[in-house]
Write a structure and sequence with these properties.
2 domains, alpha/beta, 48% helix, disordered N terminus
């Protein structure tokens, strides 16, 4: 019997709001846990079906009945069967390769994976076109895989994407890795009630495995992704994941709970503008592209390689608001004012809350169900970016920090570009939050150009 153990490293996002996007490290840790459980149960089942043979008892020699007994022969024990290791496939004529979750083992097996180009992936998927969208300014090969999406919904996605890519393009140098180029950005959007989820999952598993030169068997992939697609269909929202060690590119997911909206009103009422949300998710791909060659940790207790969660989410939302400002969709002051309002109210109720409570995946999981969890992930961090830009520059926050991630790491890049250490920033930003709203809004207006 063959024991197929396939590593599934798809970094999906949180599914708890129309504009929420959980940090990729959180999702990867959670998905790895699911897969580890699945692998263990598979191994256990195989061992139960194929028990270790009972060793043959060693015969007891009996001397011959003669005057001079023959020497007692030395008993030869039956060979003990070699136990089947659980960490490697059962030897067969064609052994199944295993990619370990451990980074060191992955490095030893990296020749088993070679990223496929975006154009080759686009030609294989069923939900999109046979080619990438023509956006010359960015080196992302972008494909929109739309399932039962209205013309208006699709237009809003394309509009937001067009402006976001113009403001935050990526280069070939960003997307090149020692294993190959990871330039594919698949944007999968579907109707929560009408779309065939099996078809959606089929394309996602194709992107993650078949195009990555792994087995065509999607064992485990469809089961896990079907669950995630169902959750997103019920709750709405959007999610993003970066290219990983076993796939060729980037992914954005959005159900009709995100794209089937017509923005009206002001303040929080239009915070879920689909154009703004897709710009937010695209910025996560932009972030990931700048960290492709940075070593990653799967330890949920440590800060991710691109920086703390509040910075990852805060900068994505800040960038999306800036795109909306430049495109004319959103009122900059209106959107920042309500975010500061809920932040101040939250600090009144929870005066001890601070950014350093939301740095790692473990911390994010701890606070996500608290009343202040969303504000500490999105609304307050947007203002942290406003403050960071005010003591440095807009370019430092949106471009320079990300350009220096690979060379310096997130801590030194922050110090270099923002001009202050993270620890000192926490103190200074807390002081900024205590100032009056008029002063804060003056700072917000001063940083835009």
């Amino acid at each position: 019997m063959h024991l197929y153990i396939t590593l599934l490293t798809i970094s999906l996002a949180a599914f708890f709001g129309c504009l929420q996007s959980e940090d990729p490290a959180i999702v990867e840790a959670r998905i790895n846990a699911e897969i580890s459980q699945k692998v263990q149960s598979t191994v256990t089942a195989w061992i139960n079906e194929n028990p270790t043979p009972t060793p043959v008892p060693t015969p007891t020699s009996t001397p011959l009945p003669t005057a001079t007994p023959l020497p007692t022969p030395t008993p030869t024990p039956s060979p003990t069967p070699t136990p089947i290791p659980t960490s490697t496939p059962i030897p067969t004529a064609t052994p199944v390769p295993i990619i370990s979750l451990d980074t060191k083992i992955w490095k030893n097996n990296k020749d088993l994976f070679s990223p496929q180009t975006g154009t080759s992936i686009a030609s294989k998927t069923l939900g999109g076109s046979d080619a990438c969208i023509d956006i010359p300014i960015t080196k992302f090969c972008i494909e929109i895989l739309a399932y039962d999406v209205t013309p208006l919904g699709l237009d809003q996605i394309k509009t937001g994407l067009r402006f976001a890519t113009q403001m935050f393009p990526v280069t070939s140098a960003d997307l090149d890795t020692p294993e190959g180029t990871r330039d594919y950005l698949g944007i999968t959007i579907w109707h929560s009630e009408e779309s065939d989820q099996h078809l959606i999952v089929r394309d996602l598993c194709l992107f993650r495995f078949d195009t990555a030169n792994f087995s065509n068997s999607f064992e485990g992939c469809e089961e896990i992704l079907s669950k995630k697609i169902s959750e997103m269909s019920l709750g709405g929202g959007a999610a993003a994941s970066s290219a990983g060690s076993t796939n060729s590119g980037f992914l954005i997911l959005a159900s009709s709970g995100m794209w089937d909206k017509i923005p009206r009103g002001s303040g929080i009422d239009i915070s879920g503008d689909p154009r703004k949300v897709i710009a937010h998710e695209y910025f996560h791909a932009y972030q990931g592209a700048h960290g492709l060659r940075v070593p990653r940790s799967i330890n949920p207790d440590v800060i991710g390689s691109n920086g703390p969660i509040w910075l990852i989410e805060g900068s994505a939302e800040f960038a999306a608001l800036y795109v909306g400002l430049k495109a004319g969709w959103l009122d900059w002051e209106d959107q920042l004012m309500w975010r500061m309002d809920v932040t101040k109210k939250m600090l009144t109720d929870y005066p001890g809350v601070s950014l350093d409570m939301n740095e790692s995946p473990t911390q994010r999981n701890t606070i996500k169900n608290e009343k202040y969890g969303h504000i500490l992930t999105y609304e307050m961090p947007v203002w942290s970016m406003v403050y960071a830009a005010s003591i440095s520059s807009l370019d430092a926050v949106l471009y320079d920090y990300w350009n220096d991630i690979e060379k310096y790491g997130y801590e030194r890049s922050f110090q270099k570009n923002i001009g202050i250490s993270l620890d000192d920033f926490y103190v200074k930003f807390h002081e900024f939050l205590q100032t009056d709203l008029d002063s804060q809004m003056q700072v917000a207006k001063s940083i835009i150009r």
